[in-house]
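Quick start: what a row looks like.
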Amino acid sequence: MSKQTKAMLTGSGGAVAASPVASTAKPTKGQKPAKKTAHNPGDAGVASDVPVPVISKPQSDGFAAKQMPDDPAWVALLHDLGTMSTMALRAKYAGEANTHRNMLQRVKTCGAVVHPAFRSFPDFLRLVGPKPTSRATLDRIDNHDPEYAPGKVRWADKITQIRNKGDSLIFTCPNTGRSYTASQLAAKQGVSSTAIRKRRRQGWTDGEIIAGERAALVAVVPSKRVSAPAKSAAPPLTLAQVLFERNREYCEFIRQTEGHEYFICTPAELQAEVADDFPQCRGPEWLRSCEENFLHSKLPQWWKQYGPHIRFHALQPHQQAWVLRIDPSRGQKSELSDAL
């Protein structure tokens, strides 16, 4: 140590003078700490007028920690953005690159919207920053907004993403007004989130779901019992009546869904459908034999079941011709109905 320096550190009595940096030791009992001023540094050894870099702590709701511009991770990222190529950035920040690739893929698969500022990976990395943890994933803050854009996304853990889903149920306590999600109540009660949602479908109130049990039902006894008048029991339907109603409903179903009247497949229509696959069904001989069986067996049976529900005037001309061959009076009834 030089003589000049030693003279600066020693007083007139030869004792070492107090260091200009305040001691970190706690003041003794009865001794008040020196007041902090612009020239009096605090306990941290930094003057009170000098800005101190701060890195925020992770929040209690599971969101990723906020990144400050003077965070060492951000300082390293900015250096990499200025010196490394896009390929090198993707290799070093592989997790962020995979997230960026999945985000662009969601445009094709899920109809998501990506802001132009997020198209290139370096710009995306500069705006969003590095992952705070390896398990963090990209989360849209507003789940109903399909756009990935600056200010609309964040790095969040899995629990935060689950709570941010649009289908998350919220249960509010009627006494305290505090709200809970299905996942919070499931963890509290030791059951699955599916069990919590099932209770809602079963008619449980929010208070019962939060408490984990149904309230006791109090039986209400009427002061005076009034006997209701006895209802006359309707006679049961017969099998024929049941079949009649079913046939009517089916004809109405075809009319509403397909826009035409229900009619059995004719021999000519059947031959057109199966002739390519079944050679034996080709030619006029097979058609003549099929029409004979159709006229004397299939068509009368079908008309007996569905005829009362068919609107004759809405049938096609060739279908009307088949009906008139087994029920000639149907044409006269249709003409009389049109006249009325």
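That is the whole record. The longest strand covers residues 137-140. The CA atoms of residues 99 and 276 lie 55 Å apart.
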